[in-house]
Design a protein that fits this description.
7 strands, alpha/beta
């Protein structure tokens, strides 16, 4: 979420972690696409308050490391990690604070890469922490023209499209997947960008989107062949 020099002292100032905590339909939807790519020892960069960990971690994973630059958020995960179905270690810091020999089978950036100013450099560093055959998984907000006061308020540097996310993928990795999700949510984001211009969606708006819009996107996205949506997903693997 921050640059290397700030990693140890960063304080998170956004609101989306709490707002999206209860978006269970959305998390279940994207987990259906990510689960096949998450295996072995997992590093979750920017783990926040543990909401993504709870949604994605299963007993089939060997171990899970929650890496979070905000000490207060890391402390929150520490309190609940015993409830996760996988052995979990909480680390306060960023990739630059890990030892060079620490390797993982999966490195996750779930709604995180857009917070990192030097995104290409970050993914190159992630590549160096992958075991052979390991994968980097990125999920981020899509389309720079949807960049809103909310994006700015929560510390986003950018939104991605297929091309811009592919551009920052580290050399030497194989692209496994690159696609959009949540086509119907796109129109809600566009409405906020053009009409409401809110600095943050309200909880009732999030609940409406999660309860009613996501089920429609589940039906429409495959019809559009995942070529359109407000979220972009990319997966890259390291050769054996």
């Amino acid at each position: 979420m921050i640059n290397d020099a700030q990693a140890a002292t960063h304080t998170y100032s956004g609101t989306e972690l709490e707002l999206f905590r209860t978006a269970v339909n959305w998390k279940g939807y994207y987990n259906g696409f990510l689960a096949a790519h998450i295996a072995g020892s997992v590093l979750e960069v920017g783990a926040g308050i543990g909401g993504t960990t709870r949604a994605l971690a299963t007993s089939r994973h060997a171990r899970w490391t929650c890496l979070e630059p905000d000490s207060a958020l890391a402390a929150q995960i520490e309190k609940i990690k015993s409830t996760f179905p996988v052995p979990c270690q909480v680390r306060q810091g960023s990739l630059s604070t890990l030892g060079g020999s620490e390797k993982f089978d999966t490195i996750l950036y779930i709604d995180v890469l857009e917070h990192i100013e030097a995104d290409a450099k970050e993914l190159e560093l992630a590549r160096d922490h992958l075991n052979a055959g390991g994968k980097i998984v990125v999920l981020s907000p899509a389309h720079q023209f949807l960049f809103s006061p909310f994006d700015q308020a929560v510390g986003h540097h950018r939104r991605y499209n297929l091309g811009s996310l592919k551009k920052v993928a580290p050399p030497g990795l194989k692209q496994e997947a690159l696609f959009y999700l949540d086509s119907m949510g796109f129109f809600l984001s566009l409405g906020n960008r053009m009409l409401l211009k809110q600095s943050a969606p309200s909880r009732p708006q999030i609940e409406f989107w999660d309860r009613y819009v996501i089920p429609i996107s589940r039906l429409v996205d495959p019809l559009l062949r995942y070529r359109f949506g407000k979220t972009v997903i990319g997966v890259w693997s390291k050769g054996a």
